[in-house]
Specification:
The protein is mainly α. The chain is 59% helix and 2% strand. Strand 1 and strand 2 form a beta hairpin.
Length: 225
């Protein structure tokens, strides 16, 4: 099955061994084969949608810039990199992204200056930069292809339905959890979601899976004010 240039992907059932193990932990008597197949088909469709959209340069741009901004925020957590490294990361951003960052900094920042004039050694300036990045991320997420690809939201909702059927319970996230609190501890639903998405996104972390669930259900955490 193809759509001109995009070949429909096939995921071997053997790739879902960890998914089936997670299902067995949820309920040893559930329809493991059926539920695993539901998730596999949803993953195949997600791969197809992502491959198809990557042929659209504009969609790919927003997704690529979002990844850069997400990585930028991670680098700003805890002890930030040197001003030189921060300058390098800023230089790697697309001009459109830098435009939004500049606009946000000049509108809401206490200093009324743009990226080029920032004192990246100042904690207060870095705080303003974080806020500007959060705002620019939100702008990019509204663009086609922004944020998590919509197909991953579909996979997440499919996993939620499977979990509900297998367990008879509502899927929930481990409460009061962040990158600093219980980064590896997960409940049965989180394990099923993580192992499912990792079939096509091997580098996904547990907290990444939690963020995906919040995005898919409209419960994304709010940025700091």
């Amino acid at each position: 099955m193809t759509n001109d240039l995009t070949e429909y992907p096939h995921i071997e059932p053997t790739k879902l061994v960890a998914v089936e193990a997670a299902l067995l932990r949820i309920n040893p008597k559930c329809y493991v084969g059926l539920y695993s197949e539901i998730i596999r088909k949803e993953l195949e469709r997600a791969l197809y949608d992502q491959l198809y959209d990557e042929q659209d340069t504009l969609r790919y741009l927003w997704a690529s810039e979002l990844r850069k901004l997400n990585n930028f925020l991670k680098r700003l957590q805890g002890k930030p990199p040197t001003p030189e490294r921060l300058r390098l990361r800023i230089s790697e951003l697309h001009e459109v992204t830098k435009h939004f960052l500049n606009a946000r900094l000049k509108i809401s920042g206490d200093h009324g200056i743009g990226l080029a004039e920032l004192d990246l050694g100042s904690p207060n300036v870095l705080d303003e930069l974080r806020k500007a990045i959060y705002h620019t991320r939100a702008v990019h997420r509204r663009k086609p292809g922004g944020g998590h690809h919509r197909s991953l939201h579909d996979v997440t909702n499919a996993v939620r339905r499977v979990y509900r059927r297998a367990s008879g319970k509502k899927p929930t996230l481990t409460s009061t959890t962040s990158a600093e609190c219980l980064p590896r501890q997960m409940n049965f639903y989180e394990e099923l979601l993580l192992e499912s998405i990792k079939v096509i996104k091997p580098r996904l972390t547990l907290n990444g899976a939690r963020e995906l669930d919040r995005a898919a259900t409209g419960q994304r955490l709010k940025p700091p004010k």
